[in-house]
Amino acid sequence: MGKNLSKRNQDYSKWYNELVVKADLAENSAVRGCMVIKPYGFAIWEKIQAELDRMLKETGHENAYFPLFVPKSLFEAEEKNAEGFAKECAIVTHYRLKNDKKNKGKLIVDPSSRLEEELIVRPTSEAIIWNTYKKWIQSYRDLPIKINQWANVVRWEMRTRFFLRTSEFLWQEGHTAHESKEEAIEEVKSINNLYANFLENFMAVPVIQGLKSESERFSGAVDTYCVETMMQDGKALQAGTSHFLGQNFAKAFDVKFTTKQGSLDYVWATSWGVSTRLIGVLIMTHGDDNGLVLPPNLAPIQVVIVPVYKSSNELNSINKVANKILDNLRNEGISVKYDDREHFKPGYKFNEYELKGIPVRLTIGPKDLEKNVVEISRRDNLSKKILENDNELVLNIQKILADMQTSLFRKAKEFRDNSITEVDDYNTFKTIINIKGGFVSAHWDGSSESEEKIKNETKATIRCIPLGNSFKKGNCIISGKPSLQRVLFAKSY
Hints:
The chain has 493 residues and is an alpha+beta fold. Helix content is 35%, strand content 28%.
């Protein structure tokens, strides 16, 4: 199973696409811009989904499901939201096909089946959900509502790339309703912290939390909070967003409640989400020229055991030892696979699991049985060592997995930190953006004109206004006008 991957420093985009396919994560489908997520790729998504689902439920959120289709009139109700997604919408206009007898019986749209009202295939679910909330909310006693949905959405992308940008993708989207502005803002911040916690402690991906500029906000939001990440090629990638929607959707759908004082008021809203884009974040944060590198907390298989033998008798002897180790690891909650496939040589298996990023590989051969040892290989640094096959083996493997999780985060954070450059003039800004890349910390006057000019001339956008920014005054790098704080610019996916 030759990897033959392109080198990251030669063609990063090609390396990424090759790795997705060769590691059996996904492949192109018959539908333009859509992908087939293969079992191994979906297993990673299931790990992401399971951990996030647990975290969301622990913070009081409940799962529900809403329709895939949104009546066009509902979609149009919140004008900014509709305008923001209009160019990406897929629309259902008819509901039936019929045989075209004049053209060899091929199927054509039945003109008589045209819908009275066109349906939008959801690019996001605010419209259908807030139309529903109108029926659920009458009083302050009905609040808060904290709903999460695991679903697919469709955004008709012109240029697609596996996991990062596809016409259909999987995600979770939260939609909450609150009694007060303060409670809604606290929800938004809490979710943004939850995403940061998940990415850093589960995926070993360092993030920068911040606010989006007005032009980069979610359509229909008052404020958008985000978690931004830095990829190995010096481009930023937005990993998740959390939106304070104010009362915009409540007013669009006339969702009012009776307050404790007996008056009527509009509900305060939030929405937030992460998607299968996180798999792209994972690949481009930790992957190397040999393939995937999976953090142990996220790996569907944390340990793989590979026997090395020449005869069936040797294999039988190895099986007894390997199965005991397998049981001991599983009893401690470690996911493990014993690969005793006889029609693949050990070298093929080593290559396969290195490509797929399995954190730890145990190798057992006849000589290891004689010495009562196993060979341990770490995927993150490709190191090997011999461990005694004794009562301490499982504990030692647990320590290795924990150290890998920590080491991967430390390495990624060091790279991220070294990718932040502070500049004070536009010429230096352009040089750093075009040559070094990464985040550029610079003063901005807060105007959309300056932001747009920088974007048009350098392709760099404001990734976020970092939270906890120290308000050190300066001058905008492009207009020279006063600026209260620095923001982070970068080229992005």
